[in-house]
Design brief:
The protein is of the alpha+beta class. Helix content is 23%, strand content 42%. It has three helices and 14 strands. Strands 1, 2, 3, 4, 5, 6, 7, 8, 9, 10, 11, 12, 13 and 14 form a 14-stranded mixed β-sheet that branches. The protein is elongated and about 115 Å long. The N and C termini lie far apart (144 Å).
Length: 281
């Protein structure tokens, strides 16, 4: 009996148990940690989410989001159905979960006791070209789950309950690998429901997002602006550039004219009529 007890509590077994403990602890640390940092934004409609893996930031997202959800209610005669619209903003107090990968990443956001859940899916792709390999990432799927029995945004919905809406063949926010996506302009994305074939509209604005290749903790990489922002920036800078060019043309013209006057004034006027020579001398 004593021999068995000494074997059970032997130093080698204790060391193995200690290693197993640290291995389990390391495994728990290696899991993704998700943080809602929306309170850091001065914009009450803007949400900030960060996913970290092994103590390092692997996904960052900042955006303002609102959903326009159609739903049926009874008409005043309680016979016909009419369609109303619920306007559902993304709550700053939302809970989040994240998943980081080398080629696939996800961000799941839930709020109001999971009555609403937004799931964003990202993928990184690449190809070989004549100029070398090219890589980029994009958002390839959005899913929105909502509960029409929730009374804050849905008023007397017919057949209330959970509904799921999903994008089809989505390819949005296309960005070169290693960069973050930025778009201040509002973007509209349609999702179709699986029950009544109705469309849910997602309005995204003030977006700054990067699901891959974050080189510095809590810091976005160089931004890749969306086409709308690029056009707006061009429209803002074009008048300034044209004004500078026009001012430069005016300065050059005045300079040439001044030089011309100075050269003309210094020229000696030679008399053309012989009678004028008698006054010279």
């Amino acid at each position: 009996m004593d021999l068995r007890r000494s074997e059970i509590f032997s130093p080698s077994l204790g060391l193995r148990l200690l290693l197993l403990f640290f291995y389990a602890l390391a495994g728990s640390v290696a899991e993704q940690e998700a943080e809602n940092l929306s309170g850091l934004s001065p914009n009450p409609e803007k949400a900030i989410f960060v996913v970290r893996e092994n103590g390092t930031t692997c996904l960052m997202a900042e955006f303002a989001a609102k959903f326009i959800v159609p739903y049926d209610v009874w008409a005043s005669n309680y016979v016909d159905l009419i369609t109303e619209q619920a306007y559902i903003p993304l709550s700053r107090g939302a809970e989040e979960q994240g998943k980081c990968g080398s080629n696939e990443s996800e961000l799941h956001i839930s709020w109001m006791d999971k009555a609403y859940t937004l799931r964003l899916y990202f993928v990184k792709e690449g190809r070989n070209t004549s100029q070398g390999p090219e890589a980029w990432w994009k958002m390839n799927k959005i899913q929105f789950v909502y509960d029409s029995s929730e009374r804050t945004y849905f008023k007397d919905a017919v057949n209330p309950g959970k509904h799921t809406s999903t994008t089809r063949h989505l390819s949005a926010l296309v960005t070169p690998a290693g960069k973050s996506y930025e778009c201040q302009a509002q973007q509209t994305i349609s999702l179709i429901t699986t029950d009544h074939q109705k469309y849910v509209v997602l309005l995204l604005s003030e977006v700054r997002l990067q699901p891959f290749d974050i080189s510095s903790d809590f810091v976005f990489s160089e931004e890749h602006k969306c086409p709308v922002d690029q056009r707006e920036q061009l429209e803002e800078t074009l008048p300034l550039v044209l004004g500078l060019i026009l001012g430069l043309v005016i300065v050059i013209t005045l300079g040439v004219y001044h030089i011309h006057l100075k050269m003309t004034a210094n020229q000696v006027q030679i008399p053309r009529d012989r009678s004028e020579y008698k006054h010279m001398g």
